[in-house]
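Continuing from the previous page of notes. For each protein in this section, the sequence appears first, followed by its C-alpha cells. Read the first protein now.
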Amino acid sequence: QVQLVESGGGLVQAGGSLRLSCAASGRTFSNYAMGWFRQAPGKEREFVAVISWSGGSTYYADSVKGRFTISRDNAKNTVYLQMNSLTPEDMAVYYCAADRVSRRLWATPRVPADFGSWGQGTQVTVAS
C-alpha cells in the first residue's frame, strides 16, 4: 500500500548536517508510523528513529538522540530525517520504512519486522 523512495544522501564533513527525505505514494500514507534505519557495510541493519502515524510521538536510538530529528509532512507524503553533528560512525545506507500496521495506537514499531514497506536506501558518507 505504501511505496517509498529515499533521497538527500551524499558526502558531508564530520560535524556537518544533512537532511534525508522519503517520498511515499499511497492514499493511506498518513495512517502509518514511519521509521528510519541504517546499515553500514558488514553490519546489521539498525534502528535510527520512528515517528507515529499521528506525528505526535517520536523515538530515537541512543546513538542519535540530540543530533537527529524525524518529522513528517502528510500533505507532501514525505518523512524527513534531519541529521546534525555527523560523525564517521553515522556513515551508512539509510532506509525509510512504513509500519506494517495501520494507525498503530499502543506500541511503537522499532524493529525491522514491524515494518512492511521499505525504500531502496540512500547513501550517507561522512568524511573526517
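Done with the first. The second protein uses the same format. Note its length before scrolling.
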Amino acid sequence: QVQLVESGGGLVQAGGSLRLSCAASGRTFSTYVLGWLRQAPGKEREFVAAIRWSTGSTYYVDSLKDRFTISKDNAKNTVYLQMDNLKPEDTAVYYCAALTGITYSAVSHYGYWGQGTQVTVSS
C-alpha cells in the first residue's frame, strides 16, 4: 500500500547539515502519518519526527526539535528531514516509515518502512 525510498545520507562533520528525502508512493500514502526514525549502532530504533500528510501537522522528539525540521512537498510526494548542527551522536541509519498504529512516537506502530540511509557525523 505504501512504498518509501530514502536518500540524502552521507558523511558530514560535526556542526554541519544534511537534508534527507523520502519519496512516497502507493494509492493511500497521503492518508498516513509519515515519520523519520533512526537506529544507531548497538542501540534500539527510536522516533525522530513525523508529519501528518493530510494536514501538515508535525511531531518531534523534544531533544531534537531545535535542530531537526520535518517538511513535505506535495507536488513531489516527498518528505524531508532537515538536520542542522549535527553531532556525532546523530550517527545512525535513518528510516522513513508510515504509521499504521495510533502512537506516532512508538516505533512498533509503524507498519511500512523504507530501506534506510546512513548518516555519519565525524568529530
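What the second structure shows: The chain has a mean pLDDT of 97. The two ends are 40 Å apart (CA to CA). We return to this in next week's lecture.
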